[in-house]
UniProtKB/TrEMBL annotation:
Residue ranges constituting the Ribosomal RNA small subunit methyltransferase E PUA-like domain according to the UniProt record: 29-67
Keyword Protein biosynthesis (UniProt): no
First-listed, main subcellular location of the protein, grouped into a coarse class: cytoplasm
Organism of derivation: Halarsenatibacter silvermanii
Name of this protein: Ribosomal RNA small subunit methyltransferase E
Role, per record: Specifically methylates the N3 position of the uracil ring of uridine 1498 (m3U1498) in 16S rRNA. Acts on the fully assembled 30S ribosomal subunit.
Amino acid sequence: MPSKRFFLPASRSEDLMKLDEIEVGPDMYNHMIKSMRMQKGDCCLLLDGRGHQGKVRIEEIDRDRESAVLKVINTEDAAGEPDTEIFIAQALAKKKKVETVIQKSTEIGARGFYPFSSRHAVVKLKADRVDKRLDRWRKIIREAARQSERGIRPDIFRPIDLDGLMDLSRDFEVVLLARAREARHTIKELSREKVVRKGRKILLIIGPEGGLAEKEIEKLISLKNCYDISLGPRILRTETAGPVLSGIILHEVGEMQ
């Protein structure tokens, strides 16, 4: 397979497995032709972000329209994806901290992200800034997914409040609430008991720098599928917890071999 890899933009809904050729616009043109200096006849690996990849060849380049036509040579299911689906609910934090979480967790294998507001969060994202922030977060995810050779492009959803997080949690087989102190479980114990196991859909909840309020914790652990888990003997920063715990989970279920 070619070494150069590109994701179709998130706005494209095509299934790569069903296409003979595809035209790409300015975003991909700038990356492929201007930045990577690819030329007519060159081949690369194209991913549709939905679990499919294909070898494609540049058939036409239109420099005036900043577009290119790609011929699909062959397609297959994309590699690089764990069977265990880890979604991270990350409390809103300072800009760089959230960016670190989504970048590193994407590289490790997280499937998606749900930012949420909490009582002790130091950041309150204003409604008129949400779309701009989401665009930046998705760009970071796309680049991290490409660099780490992911088979899909994880998504990040609009911020929700605690009630929204409670409703969301009911859609998962297992919810893991990270706690610095007084947790009743560890990932290793839950793995041994087969609560955490390969192929499950898991929501990992990470609180803000100041931690979740006690009432927020009480609400979450009242859910039947929620287990509070220990972060170990050391205190992890909010931007460290998500990537570290994602890696531990995938290791415990045998998907970091």
